Each structure stands twice: as structure tokens, then as C-alpha cells.
């Protein structure tokens, strides 16, 4: 459904906007970034010090950019390509020029305000993303158990869908203090957020999303739970998340991460690419005109890291795929944590044992997508009998699950994301080639739209991905299982190292998989900023008193701690 927000707390102009401010770590990253004092300073004696940044996804590039501005010398290592899971690809073939497909992130909530800071900084534009039943989406078809319903708003769907939406709102209200948390997040009322969340974390860490529904009076009906799993909230199709911790779901709904989405015009990968080339106006130590690209001699980042170990003086020594060995006083690791278990040879002494356990326990969702280029947005043609769009954004319980129609205006080539799936639904595609996948998808959609010949509009080969099969990712994004809160807390708080033994300091974890909001680029940005604070602090630097950083305020806003015994 398009909105999870009970009417009582619907956004009005009188209310402050909802942002991804907490609930676990209510720190105002957006204010920190906007402050004229900047993110902090390091002693002049450290200017030019090299810092290894492993991974050139958004988290690594943001971290490197901010370290460069502080006068440090980031050395970025990237195994695949700059952008990581912000991966925008083109199509082969005549007539497909300029068409792109977002294989990873494709839609961004306005509540991602730290991400938005960088989108604005590099001058990228956004436009409304055609989610199910979103205002800008011409039409949506919900196809369940062989029965299709056409809708332009939720009111066009049968009553049972509204009953399900009301059940979800009631369930959130009863089981998760939704309105109070929503208000506290809008008002950035830190004590209130912490009070509500502390109780919920304790109560719900062992609970699955599905168990949470089942315990609610509002969701007594199996049929309602089944429909909810299909159309869910926000972008729909959340039943593949049913086994995950309900805390993960609450983080998404409280912060409206799944609502009001916008896409980046021209593709999201432009963001890290533009940051790579950007010459900041305010920069310490380096001459104006310095960029991450120029610090890497105008070339690409260094290649994949193959070995990480500790050397004398608690240094971090990095070996790359070219066999180059370099030693750093400090490093930031931004790739998915599982890389440290298999693809990179690591010393145990890099991290405390509890952190290793947490990395091993990290649970990733699988995800597959397939896009095809088409000659024009033919879906806007009208059916002669009904006057409806001949094809619509489609949510279904068939193999495709979610189909998205993406156009740049009439009469121009366009793209269709024939299928976007998660978890088991993604694994079903894994052994199939791109063409085999497309054939099954066209068959499914052919059953929903028997009068439409989608194939005749396809002008190039499909492009596809299964993130679980990508050697430098091994999964799409983290999603905690029940009982994982403690692991998550260890990884997120790793940037606070003063209490660690000295021989465990100096390497900082970042990236969306250690954030509280994995699967959202906001988590990549905010954990990068934590790691930047960690590096600055490690090298004897400090923030300006008027702009305290995440580590400075840590004691007041630290994530709830659950007992280990
Ligand atoms: C299918 C999918 C859909 C998504 N949808 C959305 C969305 O709609 N909205 C949203 O906000 N977010 C979305 N996300 C999440 C978003 O893409 C991520 O939060 C963000 O891109 C993660 O950035 P990162 O830098 O933390 O990690 P990554 O992008 O994974 O970057 C890590 C980098 O490390 C590199 N690496 C790995 N191993 C090594 C090595 N040994 N040496 C050197 N480098 C290495 C990798 O190649 C990679 O480039 C989605 C993600 C996926 C996969």
C-alpha cells in the first residue's frame, strides 16, 4: 500500500518532516553535514597521512571524499567498479542509447537526508519513482491467485485490501507505538525515541515479522496475512521478509524508508562517480582542484584487497590483487562483511572475537532483477474496451512478483523491470540465464495481460543480476534475523574504539550492512560518517565544539544494550 501512516499522524505542513533519525542511534547526520564548521579537523602533523578505504561503493567514496577534505590521503581499493550496489547499466543494441537500468538501488525516500546532501552536492536531479499505487504511477494491477485488480488509487481495490491496510496500521499502533514514535522522530525528541525503542528492542528482538503479525488481533485472519504479504506496505511484496526480525521492519516503517520514493535521473551510480571527480571548494592541506581521482593519479582506485593483516605498531597492512603491499595507521572497510570471511585473507587479530561472531552471523537477503529495453511506453496505450492502460505497474504472486514500468516521456524508448524479487523468490531465478528468466517472466505477464504482446516491443537483450551470485557482494543487503540485535549493535558501534584493546583499533567497519537500515543507501552514508569520525579521532583530531560528531554525542544516544547472559 502507498501509505503505512495512520490518518492521525499523516504528514501536514504543520509537522516537521520524517527523516531517518534513529530510532537506534538518533544522531542528526543531516545537520552535521550542513554545518559550516565542517566534520572536524586533524592535527597538521597528520596532513597527507594515507588512509586505506576498502570498497569504492557509496560508503567508501563518501568516506574517502570527507577524509580528503580533512587533509588526509585516502587510498581507495575497489574490486569491481566505483559505485558498488549503486550499479547503473546500459543495454546493447541500436535504439537503446541512453537507456539505463538500476541493478541495485533504484528508489530513494526523501527521509534519506544524509544521502540527499550528497545528491544535491553533486547536482543530481531526482524524479518520482513509479511504485505501486504511488501518486505519479499511472495505474497498478494487483494480481493474486489468478485474479487481477486494476487501480489508480487504493480506493479502486476491493474492500479486503483496505481491511488489510487498516489491520497493518492497527497492528503497528498496538504492537509498536507507531504514532508516538512517528511524532518523536519528526520532533527529534531523543529521550522519547529512546524510551519507546528501548522497550521494543527488549520485547521484540526475538520476534519475526510474521510472528508479530500473528500476535496481533488485527491480523487474526490468515487470508489477510497472505494478502498483506503480497501487497504489503510501501513498495509491496514484503512476505519474503516474514522470517526477519520485526525490528528491521519497524525501522523501515517508522522512518518512511519505503514511501514517497524518487529515482535519480540518469542513474544512481553517477553519485559516487561524481564524488570521485569532484574538486571540493573547501579543502584542507591539498591545493584547490584536488579530487579523489587526482589523488589516484587520475586513474581508477587500486584493485581488490586480497589480504589484511596487523603489523608492528598496530598498523594495518593491505595486500591487493596486483601484489602491492602497503601499510596504514588506519583503514576503513566498507565491503559486505562476509568478504572478510572468505575472499580476503585476514588475521584474527584485526577485530575482537565478538565482532567476528557478529560478521559470521550477518544475514543477507538475496535479490534478482531483470530489465528489458522497449521501443516506447506502450503500456500507456488505452484498451479499446475498458479505456484502461493496457499494462500497469504489477504486483503478483506469480514468479515475477514486482514489475516496474519506467519511461522518459511518450515516443521515447523506455525500460521495463520485468521482475524484482527477494530471498526465495530470487533463488528461483538463480540457475536461469538472462534469456530463460525473460521467457518465464513474459509467460507470467502474458497470463495477466493476455491482450498485450510485450515481446514485440523489446528492442535489445535483457540485463539481469542476482546479487547473491556476485563474487564481491554475496548478497543484496543485510536483514537481521530474530536474536541478531546484539550482533548488529557490535558492528554498528565499532567506530567507538577507545574501549577496545590498542591492538584492535585503527580499522573501522562501515557500509550499509553494518548500519541499522541496510538496503537503504542512507545507511551506507551514515556509517561512512561514523568511520570518518573514528579515523579523525584515532589520528588525534576533533570536531568543532559547535558541530559535535556522532562519536562526540555517542554516550547520550548510544544504541540500547541488551544483556549478553
Ligand atoms: C537489489 C538492491 C536494491 C536496492 N535498493 C535500494 C533502494 O531502492 N534504495 C536505497 O536507498 N538503497 C537500495 N539498496 C541499497 C544500496 O544499494 C546500498 O545501501 C548501497 O549502495 C551500499 O553501499 P556500500 O558502499 O555500503 O556497499 P557496496 O555498494 O556493496 O560497496 C562495497 C564495495 O566494496 C567492493 N569490494 C568487495 N570486496 C572487495 C575487496 N576485496 N577489495 C576491494 N573492494 C571490494 C565491492 O565491489 C563494492 O563496490 C539496494 C541494494 C540492492 C542490492
Helix/strand layout:
Elements (H helix, E strand, L loop, with lengths): L28 H6 L15 E5 L3 H12 L3 E5 L10 E2 L11 E2 L10 H9 L4 E3 L11 E5 L2 E5 L7 H18 L1 H10 L2 H15 L4 H7 L6 H10 L14 H9 L7 E3 L5 H8 L14 H4 L9 E7 L3 E6 L4 E4 L2 E3 L11 E2 L6 H9 L2 E2 L1 E8 L18 E4 L5 E5 L7 E9 H5 L6 H15 L14 E4 L10 E2 L6 H8 L14 E3 L11 H18 L15 H4 L8
Parallel strand pairs: 1-2, 1-12, 6-16, 9-13, 12-21
Antiparallel strand pairs: 3-4, 5-8, 6-7, 9-10, 10-11, 14-20, 15-18, 15-19, 16-17, 17-18
Helix pairs in contact: 2-10, 2-16, 4-8, 5-6, 7-9, 12-15
Flavin-adenine dinucleotide binds next to α2 and α16.
Please describe what this structure looks like:
It comes from Streptomyces alboflavus. InterPro entries: Amino_oxidase, FAD/NAD-bd_sf, Flavin_monoamine_oxidase. This is Amine oxidase. Pfam families: Amino_oxidase. One of its GO terms (molecular function) is L-amino-acid oxidase activity. The chain has 565 residues and is of the alpha/beta class. It folds into 2 domains: 44-85 and 269-362 and 478-557, FAD/NAD(P)-binding domain; 88-264 and 367-469, Guanine Nucleotide Dissociation Inhibitor, domain 1 (Orthogonal Bundle). It is 30% helix and 16% strand. The protein has 17 helices and 21 strands. The protein has helices spanning 29-34, 58-69, 113-121, 159-176, 178-187, 190-204, 209-215, 222-231, 246-254, 270-277, 292-295, 353-361, 423-427, 434-448, 485-492, 521-538, 554-557; strands spanning 50-54, 73-77, 88-89, 101-102, 126-128, 140-144, 147-151, 262-264, 305-311, 315-320, 325-328, 331-333, 345-346, 364-365, 367-374, 393-396, 402-406, 414-422, 463-466, 477-478, 507-509. The strands form 6 sheets. The chain has a 7-stranded mixed beta sheet, sandwiched between helices. Strand 16 (393-396) and strand 17 (402-406) form a beta hairpin. Helix 2 (58-69) runs parallel beside helix 16 and helix 4 crosses helix 8 (222-231). Mean pLDDT is 95; it is low at 1-11.
Amino acid at each position: 500500500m502507498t501509505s503505512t501512516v495512520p490518518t492521525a499522524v499523516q504528514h501536514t505542513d504543520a509537522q516537521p518532516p520524517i527523516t531517518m533519525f534513529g530510532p537506534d542511534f538518533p544522531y542528526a547526520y543531516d545537520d552535521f553535514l550542513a554545518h559550516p564548521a565542517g566534520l572536524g579537523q586533524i592535527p597538521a602533523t597528520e596532513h597527507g597521512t594515507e588512509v586505506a578505504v576498502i570498497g569504492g561503493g557509496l560508503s567508501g567514496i563518501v568516506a574517502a571524499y570527507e577524509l580528503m577534505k580533512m587533509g588526509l590521503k585516502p587510498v581507495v581499493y575497489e574490486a569491481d567498479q566505483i559505485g558498488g550496489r549503486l550499479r547503473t547499466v546500459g543495454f546493447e543494441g541500436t535504439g537503446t542509447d541512453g537507456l539505463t537500468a538500476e541493478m541495485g538501488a533504484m528508489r530513494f525516500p526523501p527521509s534519506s537526508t544524509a544521502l540527499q546532501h550528497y545528491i544535491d552536492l553533486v547536482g543530481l536531479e531526482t524524479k518520482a519513482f513509479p511504485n505501486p499505487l504511488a501518486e505519479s504511477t499511472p495505474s497498478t494491477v494487483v494480481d493474486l491467485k489468478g485474479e487481477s485488480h486494476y487501480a489508480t488509487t487504493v480506493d479502486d481495490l476491493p474492500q479486503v485490501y483496505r481491511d488489510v491496510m487498516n489491520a497493518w496500521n492497527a497492528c503497528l499502533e498496538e504492537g509498536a507505538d507507531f504514532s508516538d514514535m512517528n511524532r518523536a522522530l519528526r520532533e527529534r525528541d531523543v529521550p522519547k525515541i529512546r524510551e519507546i525503542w528501548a522497550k521494543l528492542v527488549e520485547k521484540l528482538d526475538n520476534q519475526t515479522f510474521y510472528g508479530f503479525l500473528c500476535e496481533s488481533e488485527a491480523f487474526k485472519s490468515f487470508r489477510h496475512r497472505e494478502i498483506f504479504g503480497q501487497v504489503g506496505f510501501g513498495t509491496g511484496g514484503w512476505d519474503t521478509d516474514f522470517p526477519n526480525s520485526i525490528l528491521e521492519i519497524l525501522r523501515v516503517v517508522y522512518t518512511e524508508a519505503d514511501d514517497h520514493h524518487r529515482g535519480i535521473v540518469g542513474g544512481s551510480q553517477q553519485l559516487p562517480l561524481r564524488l570521485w571527480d569532484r574538486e571540493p571548494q573547501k579543502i584542507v592541506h591539498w591545493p584547490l582542484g584536488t579530487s579523489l581521482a587526482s589523488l589516484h593519479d587520475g586513474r581508477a582506485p587500486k584493485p581488490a584487497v586480497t589480504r589484511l593483516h596487523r603489523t608492528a605498531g598496530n598498523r594495518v597492512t593491505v595486500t591487493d590483487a596486483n601484489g602491492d603491499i602497503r601499510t596504514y595507521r588506519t583503514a576503513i572497510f566498507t565491503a559486505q562483511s562476509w568478504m572478510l570471511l572468505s575472499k580476503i585473507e585476514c588475521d584474527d587479530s584485526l577485530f575482537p572475537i565478538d565482532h567476528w561472531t557478529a560478521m559470521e552471523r550477518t544475514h543477507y537477503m538475496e535479490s534478482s532483477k531483470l530489465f528489458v529495453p522497449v521501443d516506447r511506453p506502450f503500456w500507456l496505450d488505452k484498451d479499446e474496451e475498458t479505456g484502461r492502460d493496457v499494462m500497469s505497474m504489477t504486483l503478483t504472486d506469480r514468479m515475477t512478483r514486482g514489475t516496474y514500468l519506467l519511461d522518459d516521456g511518450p515516443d521515447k524508448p523506455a525500460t521495463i523491470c520485468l521482475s524484482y524479487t527477494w530471498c526465495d523468490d530470487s533463488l528461483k531465478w538463480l540457475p536461469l540465464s538472462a534469456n530463460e528468466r525473460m521467457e518465464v517472466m513474459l509467460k507470467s505477464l502474458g497470463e495477466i495481460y493476455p491482450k498485450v504482446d510485450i515481446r514485440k516491443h523489446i528492442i535489445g537483450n535483457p540485463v539481469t543480476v542476482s546479487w547473491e551470485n556476485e563474487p564481491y557482494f554475496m548478497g543484496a543487503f543485510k536483514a537481521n534475523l530474530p536474536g541478531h540485535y546484539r550482533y548488529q549493535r557490535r558492528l554498528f558501534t565499532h567506530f567507538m574504539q577507545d574501549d577496545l584493546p590498542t591492538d584492535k583499533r585503527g580499522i573501522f567497519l562501515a557500509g550499509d550492512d553494518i548500519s541499522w537500515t541496510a538496503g537503504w543507501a542512507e545507511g551506507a552514508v551514515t556509517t561512512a560518517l561514523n568511520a570518518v569520525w573514528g579515523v579523525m579521532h584515532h589520528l588525534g583530531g576533533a570536531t568543532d565544539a559547535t558541530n559535535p560528531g556522532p562519536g562526540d554525542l555517542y554516550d547520550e544516544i548510544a544504541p540500547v544494550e541488551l544483556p549478553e547472559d
